[in-house]
């Protein structure tokens, strides 16, 4: 499915005659990628799920949500299709974590602390470029917090926990 997304977005790029900066993309995701690899090597499934199924999926969903209103017609159609799939991927992780909530809670808190600040850093790195497209940083932050907060609520965290966790590290940027 992600491969279909890749093909779709490559077509969007060709349609706009833009060249993707793959080096930047690799660098952009490298810290989250590295944390995922370390967690995987240690067998920390909960941390892996938080990074991939919650953070990456919410990051993608919020970026697509804010992109859709300013996208060209072609890209809008592609992105609307992709965002539906990403909600489903988010749900896979949520369901597993919900079913294993008590056993996962402490590791989720810890993984959240270690990885959420990277999200704010990443959003700042692309803020200027996003602004050129008419995507405001504040809107991206807000949408991410909504998606991520909803996911944490669905998993079983209390409102108080969700507020604290979903804003972790935000004040520092
Ligand atoms: Fe996905």
Q: What would you note in describing this structure?
A:
This protein has 173 residues and is mostly helical. The chain has a single domain (2-172), classed as Ferritin (Up-down Bundle), CATH 1.20.1260.10. The protein is built from 7 helices and no strands. It has helices at 2-15, 22-41, 45-67, 73-99, 101-132, 137-155, 159-166. The radius of gyration is 16 Å and the shape is globular. The mean pLDDT is 95. The structure holds fe (ii) ion. The site of fe (ii) ion (FE2) has 4 residues, from helix 4.
Summarize the structure.
With 173 residues, the protein is mainly alpha-helical.
Q: Biggest sheet: strands, sense, closure?
A: none
What's the CATH superfamily, by name?
Ferritin, core subunit, four-helix bundle
**Which fold name corresponds to the CATH topology?**
Ferritin
CATH hierarchy, class: Mainly Alpha
Classify the beta-strand content into a percent band. Answer: under 5%
User: What is the number of strand segments?
Assistant: 0
Q: Characterize the overall form.
A: globular
Number of helices: 7
Oligomer: single chain
- End-to-end Cα distance, whole Å, is 34 Å
Query: Percent range for helical residues?
Result: over 70%
Can you lay out the helices and strands and say which pair or pack?
Elements (H helix, E strand, L loop, with lengths): L1 H14 L6 H20 L3 H23 L5 H27 L1 H32 L4 H19 L3 H8 L7
The structure holds fe (ii) ion.
Fe (ii) ion (FE2) binds next to helix 4.
């Amino acid at each position: 499915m992600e491969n279909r997304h890749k093909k779709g977005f490559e077509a969007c790029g060709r349609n706009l005659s833009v060249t993707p900066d793959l080096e930047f993309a690799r660098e952009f995701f490298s810290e989250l990628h590295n944390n995922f690899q370390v967690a995987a090597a240690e067998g920390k499934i909960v941390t892996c799920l938080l990074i991939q199924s919650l953070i990456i999926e919410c990051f993608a969903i919020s970026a697509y949500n804010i992109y859709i209103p300013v996208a060209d017609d072609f890209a809008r159609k592609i992105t609307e299709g992709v965002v539906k799939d990403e909600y489903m991927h988010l749900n896979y992780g949520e369901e597993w974590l919900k079913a294993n909530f008590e056993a996962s809670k402490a590791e989720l808190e810890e993984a959240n602390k270690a990885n959420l600040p990277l999200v704010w850093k990443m959003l700042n790195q692309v803020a200027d470029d996003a602004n050129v497209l008419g995507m405001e940083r504040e809107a991206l932050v807000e949408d991410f917090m909504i998606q991520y907060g909803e996911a944490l609520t669905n998993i079983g965290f209390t409102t108080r926990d969700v507020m604290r966790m979903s804003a972790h590290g935000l004040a520092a940027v």
